[in-house]
Design a protein that fits this description.
By secondary structure, the protein is α+β, with helices and mostly antiparallel strands. A hairpin with a 2-residue loop joins strand 18 and strand 19. The chain is elongated, with a radius of gyration of 36 Å. It catalyses: Preferential cleavage: (Ac)2-L-Lys-D-Ala-|-D-Ala. Also transpeptidation of peptidyl-alanyl moieties that are N-acyl substituents of D-alanine. It comes from Neobacillus pocheonensis. Pathway: Cell wall biogenesis; peptidoglycan biosynthesis.
């Protein structure tokens, strides 16, 4: 019986073995040989930024880097072991270690001690995540203190933290700042003993002009910061990895899709256990496309220097305690190309207590102020459109005595003046009487104003918006403000203030768009700071072929006849001529400017101040450049300095002087080339003779 049972069992075993080998053998063999192909994407350097003349503004600086790629089957103990080895040959950054990182390390290194912190009854009730969180809470404080004092442990913690921040089969930066040649070499020599670790070349963003235009260029997140939390899902849906570096603000963010580039695709072949058995490059990827900005960096730097000098100089004068900033925009009035977008702000150094100058170019679109009489060109054109006045209309510039209201007047009494003179001398009374008629009212001395205020406000604001005042300019940058509208539409005095730029607030960019609309004959052009998009060139300092050229975009045509616009252009020209409010600053220039000055009463920190502005274009008969200058809180009191006019004059001088210099350089180059060609021809002829 025993022999029979043994025989039977062996027969069954042989039969079963035969089934495995003969019937299912190929299936099991295929299962053993089964592999998975997982494709990962590796980031590439971002596109560069150039100025309109081909100068590199933003570049990528190569960095030696040490990376870690987590395999699918690696466990925390193995990662900790590798982190310990690596921490002995590099100096990781310890400044970013948090208490949580120390706790994670301790739980991984001492799992038995960690689990001993949990009672048996708790182990039965809680899941893994709850147990881990409870372990984190119960780690004694002295453990954290002791580890914090151990330099070697802290170095391991710093490396282990970086290992854990990565994703399976995706390289994670362990160190890319201040990697010494010795560190790079030693790590490279020991890669066989450091599974998952590699040495490579990384990059960081470099801004070649320092602080110049920095607030507008924007920032890029670090590999540690990765994708911004508020946009995480949006980026992940577009194929980004969590630790990808992306533009965080302004141009870097606005043109993220262009600058990011095409990632390198790598196929990792793994066995059924998750071990990588081969790696294949599917595509090398391509650096991000380059941006050519409309900015002229030579002009930008000169204008910034002008602003700085004028701010420091004006701060030395009395009643300028609240002056701390100034803005300038120069643009092509026909195309909307921003040639200069400059802004400077004086702040106090928290450590030294001394004032410092910082870039605040962004303030041209993010801050708005009462700008004063610079808007009077729009007021006059609105008067023409509504029939309140017509070209050549005269008004008596006299103090207005309105019942129940303090006397309102221009800074001087001008008597009977027409529309051109009103612009030339900046008559407030002419504008007030125009807007009173616009609102269906009529001024009678010592009587209240009976006007349709709703009609007056709506008409004036709607007309101003056609010029870009109080509306988005459409510039290709995020977070542009439209300014603020004065809230009270029940007071006649507020409507009068609106007509002279002392009620609603506007940005410097809006002023530039407004004066460009007048300069080009009535077309509101959308300003833009990117000129074209280019494919990256093999020679990194050269421009590649154009992918997209940003074309001028007309947003609207103002409701004004051509002769009306020419009339206002003439008035602006008279502002710069004898008798005009800006003549003393612009007399003697050879580029025939036209423009309008502005002074607005405002409040800063509860103190009454004067905001100063200037809008201009030149040459007056064929405008090629428009400028807006804004100096908020220039001084306190009835009279003071005029840095707005000084800055405007010097900035326009810089533009036309730079133009002359370049024309001369081109002529010299052409002459030199022609001379060289003639010399070569003469040499050839002599050789022939």
């Amino acid at each position: 019986m025993l022999f029979f049972v043994v025989f039977l069992l062996f027969s069954i075993l042989i039969l079963k073995l035969g089934m495995v080998q003969i019937v299912y053998g190929d299936d099991y063999k295929r299962e053993l040989q089964r592999t998975d192909a997982i494709t990962t994407s590796n980031p590439v350097p971002r596109g560069k930024m150039f100025d309109r003349n081909g100068k590199v503004i933003v570049d990528n600086t190569p960095l030696n880097a040490i990376t870690y790629t987590k395999s699918q089957n690696v466990n925390s103990t193995d990662m900790l072991k590798t982190a310990g080895h690596l921490s002995k040959i590099i100096n990781p950054d310890l400044s970013k270690i948090r208490d949580r990182d120390i706790k994670d390390y301790w739980i991984t290194k001492y799992p038995k001690k960690a689990i001993a912190l949990i009672t048996k009854s708790e182990l039965k009730k809680l899941d893994y995540k709850q147990i881990y969180n409870l372990e984190l809470q119960r780690i004694p404080a002295k453990v954290i203190t002791e580890l914090s004092k151990n330099q070697n442990e802290m170095k391991t913690i710093a490396v282990f933290k970086q290992f854990n921040s990565g994703y399976a089969l995706t390289p994670q930066i362990v160190k890319n700042q201040n990697v010494t040649p010795e560190e790079y070499a030693v790590v490279s020599e020991n890669l066989d003993n450091l599974p998952g670790v590699d040495t490579t070349t990384d990059w960081e963003r470099s801004y070649l002009f320092g602080d110049t235009l920095k607030t507008v260029l924007g920032d890029v997140s670090s590999s540690e910061q990765g994708l911004p939390k508020e946009l995480l899902d949006q980026y992940l849906a577009r194929g980004y990895s969590r630790n990808d570096r992306v533009g965080k603000s302004y141009i870097e963010m606005e043109y993220e899709d262009v600058l990011q580039g095409q990632k390198a695709k790598v196929k990792n072949v793994t066995d059924k256990s998750g071990n990588v058995i081969s790696t294949e490059t599917v595509s090398d990827g391509q650096r991000g496309k380059d941006l050519v900005l409309t900015i002229d960096m030579d002009l930008q730097q000169q204008v910034e220097k002008i602003i700085e000098d004028e701010l420091w100089k004006t701060k030395q004068k009395p009643n300028t305690g609240l002056l701390d900033r100034a803005f300038v925009v120069l643009m092509d009035p026909h195309t909307g190309e921003i040639l200069t977008m400059a802004g400077k702000q004086i702040t106090k150094n928290e450590q030294t207590g001394k004032p410092e100058m910082h870039d605040f170019a962004l303030g041209n679109i993010t801050t708005a102020y009462n700008v004063g009489s610079a808007v009077k060109g729009a007021t006059v054109l609105t008067g023409y459109e509504t029939g309140a006045i017509h070209p050549g209309s005269t008004q008596l510039d006299e103090p207005l005595l309105i019942k129940g209201t303090p006397m309102k007047k221009s800074y001087k009494t001008f008597g009977v003046i027409n529309d051109l003179t009103a612009l030339q001398v900046s008559s407030n009374v002419y504008m007030w009487k125009t807007v009173i008629a616009m609102a269906g009212g009529h001024y009678v001395r010592n009587q209240p104003l009976d006007m349709n205020l709703t009609k007056g406000f709506n008409t004036l604001r709607q007309s101003f918006s056609q010029f870009g005042l109080g509306a988005r300019t459409g510039i290709d940058l995020p977070n542009e403000t439209t300014g603020l509208q004065g809230p009270d539409m029940t007071q006649p005095g507020h409507l009068l203030d609106l007509a002279i730029g002392q009620y609603d607030t506007y940005t410097t960019m809006q002023l530039a768009q407004y004066v460009s609309t007048i300069a080009n004959g009535g077309y509101r052009v959308q300003p833009h700071i990117v000129k074209d998009i280019r494919d990256p060139e093999l020679d990194n300092n050269q421009l590649g072929p154009i992918v997209e050229e940003i074309q001028p975009k007309i947003l609207n045509r103002i409701d004004a006849q051509d002769d009306w616009i020419k009339r206002v252009q003439t008035g602006f020209r008279m502002v710069m001529q004898p008798g005009g409010t800006a003549y003393s600053y612009f007399q003697g220039v050879d580029y025939s400017p036209a423009g309008k000055t502005g002074t607005a009463q405002a409040f800063d920190h509860g103190q009454p101040v004067m905001n100063l502005s200037l809008v201009s274009f030149a040459p007056a008969d064929n405008p090629e450049v428009a400028i807006a200058v804004l100096v908020p809180s220039a001084y306190q009191g009835a009279t003071g300095p005029s840095p707005n006019d000084e800055i405007g004059r010097l900035a326009l001088d810089a533009y036309f002087n730079l133009k002359k210099q370049r024309q001369q350089q081109n002529q010299n180059a052409a002459t030199s080339g022609q001379t060289s060609g003639n010399t070569a021809n003469q040499t050839t002829q002599q050789a022939g003779h």
